[in-house]
Amino acid sequence: MSASIWFDLHGLAWADVLQLCLHFMLLSMLAVGGAITTAPDMQRYLVAEHGWMSDAQFTAGVAIAQAAPGPNILFVAVMGWQVAGAAGLIATMVGILGPSSIVAVLVGRYRRRRADSLALRAFTAGLAPLTLGLLLSTGWILTAPVRQHGVALALVAGTVLLSVRSKLSPMWLIAAGAVAGALALT
Amino acid sequence: MAEPPTQVPSNDNSLRQPASWAELLRVFNRMALQGFGGVLPIAHHELVERERWINAQQFVELLTISQVLPGPNIVNFAIIFGDRFFGWRGAAAASAGLLVLPMVIVLALAMAYQHLADWPTVAGALRGMGAVAAGLIIATALKLARALKRNSLGMPTSFALGAATLVMVGFLRWPMVWVVLGLGSLGMALAAWRLSEQRPPTGPSEEPQP
Asked: Is residue B142 domain-shared with residue B130, that is, in the same domain?
């Protein structure tokens, strides 16, 4: 491993990396209900608008982060790495975490002073329905590469049913998906 | 802007305090490494049941705030939690514990995948995992939808806002910026209006400050 991995931008210009960071900073502030809700816009930006990665790469990145231990937000690290190496990784992670973390510290401190303000409660109640709509959008977009496979659609539906009806660990469902996919989705 | 360590106000004497920011780093790292497919259930077990740093009610309140704030929920949770005990050092320690080691693991897996991607079995397994990941996210939305019953907007308005978001972002693929700014402002304005109508003139605080 050489120092060049820090500067191998996979053909992007430094201006592109800066633009990438700024776009993810914007998404950071818009990621109401978790970073996964920005996945539709990341797909639009990285795949459809710039062609920096393919649809299959994008969905694989999300699946790898879901399968691995740790916060699912780490799919953003995979995106950054695939688009522009180490510089891309830093750009996307600093972008997606920076602005929202500063807001979290400020709101946490404010909230310890006044829990019952109308503004805080209106903010919570007013944005909750959007959170759910964005989560559903993300689920829908992640099915895009497999929508033509009956087996995959059955996996999606089975996962939804089992997950809503039982307290089975997601780890087992992911493992079952890997086995079913290896046997039937090749 | 370092803030002195904040004593957590609590009437529950059985609660403990983390000894140092290094202990936060260690516990949040342990949480993250157990969290396959989501860290939140593990966080509840570790912080409430095992370490007893906060009680269940405080956990739920912290989680609500972390979910409605922009940004990744569990990272927001770690930041607010860490900041409350040890200021910015605590926030940095908790979020680093959560992110650094798992990030190395995820990147190693992603790089291994690039070399294995031409192998049909691996590609198939990843497709299967992607389908399950999509299902898990849809299921989470459906589970959370039950909580809308207690939303001050009421079920019909909440449902309409959620469905409009799905259509605009999921189906029509409009940029999220305008959808969140537009529908979000509408939702917050409606919520503020309903809350100010419901609120008694000198109503006492409903929820005790954790």
From this structure: yes
